[in-house]
Amino acid sequence: MTKFEKCWLNYSLVSEVSGWKDKLSCIFTNLDGKCIENAVKELRVAIPEIIGGNTPGMCICAPCVPSEGIVLKKYDKEDAEYYDDFCPGDEGYAIYYKTDKSLLVIAADTDRGILYGVFAFIRQLQKGITPDKMKIAESPKMPFRMIDHWDNMYGDIERGYSGNSFFYENYRIIIDDRTVFYARMMASIGINAIAINNVNVHQTETLLITDKYLYEVKRINDIFASYGIKLYLSVNYAAPVEMGDVDVSDPLDERVIKWWEKTSKHIYDVIPNFGGYLVKADSEGRPGPFTYGRTHADGANMLARQIAPYGGNVVWRCFVYNCRQDWRDHKTDRARAAYDNFIGLDGEFDDNVVLQIKNGPMDFQIREPVSPLFGGLKKTNMFLEVQIAQEYTGQQRHICYLVPMWKEILEFNTYASENGLVKDIVSGKAYGNTLCGLAAVTNTGNDANWTGHDMAAVNLYGYGRMCFDTELSAEEIGREWIRATFGNDIEINDAIYSMIGTSWHTYENYSSPLGIGWMVNPAGHYGPNVDGYEYDRWGTYHRSDCKGLGIDRSVATGTGYAGQYNEPWSSLYERPETTPEELLLFFHHMDYTYKLSSGKTIIQHIYDTHFKGVEEVETMINTWNSIKEKIDPNVFNRVADRLNIQLESAIDWRDRVNTYYLRMSGIADEKGRTIY
Amino acid sequence: MTKFEKCWLNYSLVSEVSGWKDKLSCIFTNLDGKCIENAVKELRVAIPEIIGGNTPGMCICAPCVPSEGIVLKKYDKEDAEYYDDFCPGDEGYAIYYKTDKSLLVIAADTDRGILYGVFAFIRQLQKGITPDKMKIAESPKMPFRMIDHWDNMYGDIERGYSGNSFFYENYRIIIDDRTVFYARMMASIGINAIAINNVNVHQTETLLITDKYLYEVKRINDIFASYGIKLYLSVNYAAPVEMGDVDVSDPLDERVIKWWEKTSKHIYDVIPNFGGYLVKADSEGRPGPFTYGRTHADGANMLARQIAPYGGNVVWRCFVYNCRQDWRDHKTDRARAAYDNFIGLDGEFDDNVVLQIKNGPMDFQIREPVSPLFGGLKKTNMFLEVQIAQEYTGQQRHICYLVPMWKEILEFNTYASENGLVKDIVSGKAYGNTLCGLAAVTNTGNDANWTGHDMAAVNLYGYGRMCFDTELSAEEIGREWIRATFGNDIEINDAIYSMIGTSWHTYENYSSPLGIGWMVNPAGHYGPNVDGYEYDRWGTYHRSDCKGLGIDRSVATGTGYAGQYNEPWSSLYERPETTPEELLLFFHHMDYTYKLSSGKTIIQHIYDTHFKGVEEVETMINTWNSIKEKIDPNVFNRVADRLNIQLESAIDWRDRVNTYYLRMSGIADEKGRTIY
Question: Which residues pair with B263 in a beta bridge?
Answer without folding.
Answer: none
